[in-house]
Automatic annotation (TrEMBL):
PANTHER family: MITOCHONDRIAL FISSION PROTEIN ELM1, OS02G0535700 PROTEIN. This is DUF1022 domain-containing protein. InterPro entries: Elm1-like.
Length: 358
């Protein structure tokens, strides 16, 4: 590394949300960097590998090579690429790692962990908490897609009420009972505002949920079912043209992008599955089991938790959303820009590495 040009690697994968956030961090430094795209083996495209210092979960035949000269700094996001970043650091112990999100374990091995509010990461010197996640809406693409879809949307009864549907993710469930509760809320909102309900599913939406939406959704309404590589996905056009939004609370990216567009947003929280119910009960004993919990985190027996309810409350308390069942509000402020403080912290890490070691 020279004083003016550290060797920086931006390590990306197959998750668009993680990639976008990591790229924002790399761009905010105002320094050149090399992008390394690492793709998972098929068995780990959706499944989660055991967290260890390894590249075995990656398909290196489809990925960019990882060879010397080793970087001074790695910027990445997510579980799979945290493992790869630790592997890079094992080849070159002076490499610094900036991780967006929550590590499964070994938080002390990361030089900077940038965490949005939904991640339950302990307060440590190498942790930089954020008030909201970093993803933002791509305004240029929204404008382009809005024009592309405008004629089709013009024929719909106004207002258009977009219903953005995610899917189950630990510790939440999304079954027929939950989707019927969602449909009840949608019907009430449609009765209040009129217009057309426009349902748009996503990669994680279960087939049973889609079938229930197809059969039981209120009318008038439209249902778009997500398919891989679909060039006619209305999601971005909805961000530009829909007047109101109902978003299932499992999808961080959809909630944040709607908020970034300053559109009236209602969050429909998914109910807890049995894991979530057990986790909530265990939180009553946090103080008693804190020391035990810290040891379990270090071993990787349990990972750092995630509480999407914390993010919901943050969006509601700052005027960007309401809980489903409450009257919509019109956001008036912009999402906070925290890139300046992130950039300053990383530049300090590069400039004075000894001072920032954990």
């Amino acid at each position: 590394m020279t004083a003016s040009s550290p060797n920086i690697w931006l390590v990306l994968g197959d998750k668009l949300g993680d990639n976008a956030q990591a790229a924002k961090v790399a761009d905010c430094l105002g320094m050149p960097y090399t992008t390394k795209r690492l793709l998972p083996r098929q068995k780990y495209a959706l499944g989660k590998p055991f967290f260890r210092i390894s590249l075995e979960h990656l398909d290196m035949n489809r990925s960019d090579p990882l060879n010397p000269p080793w970087p001074d700094l790695v910027i990445t996001a997510g579980r799979r690429h945290a493992m790869a970043a630790l592997w890079i650091k094992a080849q070159n112990p002076t490499t610094k790692i900036v991780l967006l999100g929550r590590p499964r374990r070994w938080i002390e091995k990361f030089d900077l962990v940038i965490t949005p509010p939904q991640h339950q990461v302990p307060d440590q010197p190498n942790v930089l908490p954020l008030s909201l996640p970093l993803m933002r809406a791509d305004k240029e693409r929204i404008s382009q897609q809005s024009e592309h879809w405008r004629n089709r949307f013009d024929s719909l009864k106004k207002p258009i009420i977009a219903v953005l549907v995610g899917g189950p993710t630990r510790p939440y469930r999304f079954d027929k009972k939950a989707v019927r509760e969602l449909l009840t809320q949608c019907k009430l909102i449609q009765e209040c505002h009129g217009g057309t309900l426009y349902f748009s599913t996503s990669r994680r939406t279960p087939a049973a949920v889609i079938a229930t939406l197809d059969k039981e959704r209120p009318q008038p309404s439209v249902l778009h079912e997500w398919t891989p590589g679909d060039p006619e996905n209305p999601y971005l056009a909805l961000l530009g043209l829909a007047e109101y939004f109902i978003v299932t609370g499992d999808s961080v990216s959809m909630m944040i992008e709607v908020a970034d567009c300053k559109k009236p947003l209602a969050i429909f929280p998914l109910p807890n599955g049995w894991r979530g119910t057990l986790w909530q009960r265990c939180r009553l004993f946090d103080k008693i089991y804190q020391r035990l919990g810290n040891q379990l985190y270090k071993t990787g027996i349990v990972g750092f938790g995630r509480d999407l309810g914390t993010l919901h409350k943050m969006l509601i308390n700052t005027g960007f959303a309401v809980a489903a069942g409450n009257a919509f509000i019109q956001p008036t402020q912009s999402l906070p820009d925290e890139l300046e403080k992130i950039g300053a912290r990383i530049r300090l890490l590069i400039k004075n590495p000894a001072e920032c070691d954990t």
